[in-house]
Design brief:
With 504 residues, this protein is α+β, with helices and mostly antiparallel strands. It is built from 11 helices and 20 strands. It has 3 domains: 251 residues, DD-peptidase/beta-lactamase superfamily (Beta-lactamase, 3-Layer(aba) Sandwich), CATH 3.40.710; 125 residues, 3-Layer(bba) Sandwich (D-tyrosyl-trna(Tyr) Deacylase, Chain: A), CATH 3.50.80; 88 residues, no CATH class. It is globular, with a radius of gyration of 27 Å. The two termini are 25 Å apart.
Length: 504
């Protein structure tokens, strides 16, 4: 159990308290040397003193307000900070405000399959048409929103297809967000985004040791060409495995070592072209159902600068827009369920897909249109335009900025919406679930703080609400930037919030 830590400086007694002899108590209002006693610190001063103990260079922004919006504590409340995954608060709130029927089946975004006949082809093309859903699954135990359902529909119509096509031209081909760190690309945190997605656009890789000195066993499937340069190391040694792949490349190199007595190692690999991967998996499903595929796997993308609704393959556009050739459409679960996963687990791909869907409201699902949708909404909500800038919906972009005041204004605006309670229920609960399940354990805020976390290099954020000792409900935004490498401020942020809760 994590114990609540009190800064060491608060526990150190003055040297005079350790000396032999009687204790001389100063007169009321006087110190032991005859000077006036210091006045008790205000809560604001206490918080500032605690934050002064952070690793040098750390920059904090904090705003805490009470039920009436009155300021309790304020530190750099109007400065702008990288929000990391606190960005997801703005994305998911905008989805509740702007998208249709959040609590109904998501009929607008379900993936379609069409059979499109072309000249000189041995059978029709099987075309998967993505419409902006992040939740389609190829898992063997899938029950809802399953790629296998589309494969069954094709197999029931024909025993032969030519090409298997992944069409994600519903949106411009903007797979990675501006400002994302290059080293996140290819990982499960920075996997590409598409209008046609499958299995969170990631692949699980498992490594199991074999005999000492021999290559370990790799389990990842056959989508990538895998080069296994890893070795099984002696029992008791440290496992250090690395995965390397060029962007948009299909050659995956695994190197390093795994201890012979290791129970195994696993990681998740990002997919760089989700539309291609989805079509590739679909081809395998069709073959397994006895459908002969005479052509190849191909994709239809829309260039990033084509921001209108024109798409390059007019035959596929006709199939998608007029339903000509469409033989089945999936119906994903309600988007409200996905908001819970986005906020509780901080799921990046789903958040970014939701962001892009906001861009469908008045445009073409581009990042530019999505940002315009957010700006328009938050202007109406009374959040100062100087308080935020967004280049993505997940928080992976280092170009994003918010101020603590903007975050608190957003949270208080959400409170007044008819969907506000449902949105707040999607936040992690301190010490209980989501990304807060291991934090605040053993403190007075365990089970009483509901907040969105955020973590990027040199960045930690936390925004939401908590219940004080006396039962009051405070709203807060707490952002730390420029945290020195190798240090942590999480314990300090927790200590500050606990102190505020206990003082009220």
């Amino acid at each position: 159990m994590r114990k609540f830590l009190i800064p060491l400086a608060l526990l150190i007694l003055p040297a005079s308290a350790l000396a032999d002899g009687p204790v001389v108590r100063p007169a009321v209002g006087q110190t032991s040397v005859g000077m006036p006693a210091p006045r008790p610190q205000t809560l604001q001063q206490e918080v500032e003193a605690l934050l002064a103990g952070a690793p040098q260079g750390t920059r904090f922004g904090l705003l805490v307000v009470d039920e009436q919006g009155r300021v309790v504590v304020s530190v750099n409340a109007d400065q702008r900070f990288i929000p990391a995954s606190n960005t997801k608060m703005f994305t998911t709130a905008a989805a509740y405000a702007l998208l249709w029927n959040m609590d109904k089946p998501d009929v607008m975004a379900g993936t379609q399959v069409a059979l499109v006949q072309g000249k000189g082809r041995q059978g029709p093309d099987a075309v998967l048409i993505g419409r902006g859903d992040a939740r389609m699954s190829s898992a063997p135990d899938c029950e809802v929103n399953c790629l296998a359902q589309l494969a069954d529909a094709v197999a029931a119509k024909t025993d032969r297809v030519h090409d298997v096509v992944g069409d994600d031209s519903h949106w411009p081909d903007q797979r990675w967000v501006p400002g994302m760190s290059w080293n996140n690309i290819g990982t499960d945190s920075g996997t590409a985004v598409s209008a046609l997605n499958l299995d969170d656009n990631e692949l699980l890789i498992r490594v199991t040791p074999t005999a000492e000195g021999k290559p370990p066993f790799l389990e990842i499937g056959d989508y990538f060409e895998v080069v296994n340069e890893a070795v099984t190391a002696p029992a008791g040694s440290k496992t250090a495995l690395f995965v390397e792949r060029p962007v948009n490349g299909n050659r995956l190199r695994v190197y390093g070592s795994i201890a012979a007595d290791s129970k195994g190692w696993s990681d998740r690999i990002g997919i760089d072209d989700p539309a291609h991967y989805t079509a590739w998996v679909f081809r395998k499903m069709l073959i397994a159902r006895g459908v002969k595929v005479t052509g190849k796997v191909r994709v239809v993308h829309r260039a990033p600068d084509e921001l209108d609704r024109a798409v390059p393959d007019m035959a596929l556009a006709k199939a998608a827009d007029d339903r000509e050739g469409v033989i089945m459409s999936l119906t994903p679960p309600p988007l409200a369920e996905d908001v819970v996963r986005i906020n509780k687990d901080s799921q990046n791909v789903h958040a970014q897909v939701l962001f892009r869907r906001l861009g469908d409201i008045e445009g073409s699902g581009s990042e530019e249109w999505a940002a315009q949708a957010l700006n328009g909404l938050f202007e109406k909500a009374g959040i100062p335009r100087s308080g935020y800038d967004f280049s993505d919906g997940s928080g992976m972009s280092t170009y994003n900025r918010i101020s603590p005041r903007a975050a608190v204004l957003l949270l208080r605006w959400i409170d007044g919406q008819p969907w506000g309670a449902a949105w707040y229920a999607s936040l992690p609960v301190a010490g209980k679930d989501g990304t807060l399940r291991r934090r605040f354990i053993g403190t007075p805020l365990e089970g009483k703080l509901f907040a969105k976390t955020g973590t990027l290099n040199a960045t930690n954020t936390l925004s939401g609400t908590f219940t004080t000792r006396s039962g009051r409900r405070f709203t807060f935004a707490f952002l730390a930037n420029d945290v020195p490498n190798g240090t942590s401020v999480l314990w300090l942020m927790e200590a500050v919030l606990v102190r505020i809760a206990m003082a009220n």
